[in-house]
Structure formats: structure tokens, C-alpha cells
Design brief:
Blueprint (H helix, E strand, L loop, with lengths): L5 H9 L4 H7 L11 H14 L17 H6 L4 H4 L17
Length: 98
């Protein structure tokens, strides 16, 4: 087994295409910028493999503020440290419908 360096793995995946341009966009150094679309993609693949809707059991419950604990773990304030991109359509969770 060959050990994988986390930085090399993350940097190597994007360094040749998107990171230099994105670093200019966010005013950061190339080695400070990582694009996270992979997380969304991996979640979609996971859902494709494991999500089985049956009858009334088709709903998905998730925690909207899931990254807050990670931000706080690194001593930052979630209000300052995260950028939220709102969806175009707003959906509200009605707990009585669960």
C-alpha cells in the first residue's frame, strides 16, 4: 500500500485546471484554495446507491447547519466563516408532515 498525502491528493486533483483561477477570484494563494464540488458529487453518488424510496418513506431529513460544528472546532464564528448560497426556490420543513 502506498500512503496518500492528503494535500497532494486534494491539490493534485484540481491544481492543473481550476485552482489558479479560483485563487484570483477569492484573493487567496494557490496552496490555500481547494474546490469542494467533490463533496456534493460524492453525496449524490451515495444517494444513488443507498436511497430507496418506498411508499411514505421517501423523505430525507438533514441538518441545515451541519458545517457549523466544524467551523467552531477551528475557533471561527459560523456567521463570518461560511458563505451560504441560497437555492432559487425556498422550501420549508413542516415537522408535522414527517
Amino acid at each position: 500500500n502506498i500512503p496518500i498525502s492528503f494535500n497532494r491528493y486534494v491539490d493534485g486533483h484540481f491544481i492543473d485546471s481550476c485552482v489558479p483561477t479560483m485563487s484570483l477570484f477569492v484573493d487567496g494563494q494557490i496552496d490555500e484554495v481547494v474546490l469542494m464540488n467533490q463533496l456534493s458529487l460524492n453525496l449524490h453518488f451515495m444517494m444513488m446507491a443507498f436511497y430507496q424510496s418506498e411508499g411514505d418513506g421517501y423523505k430525507i431529513l438533514y441538518e441545515e447547519h451541519v458545517i457549523n460544528s466544524q467551523i467552531k472546532l477551528h475557533s471561527y464564528d459560523p456567521k463570518d466563516a461560511k458563505i451560504v448560497i441560497k437555492a432559487r426556490k425556498v422550501a420549508y420543513l413542516n415537522l408535522s408532515s414527517l
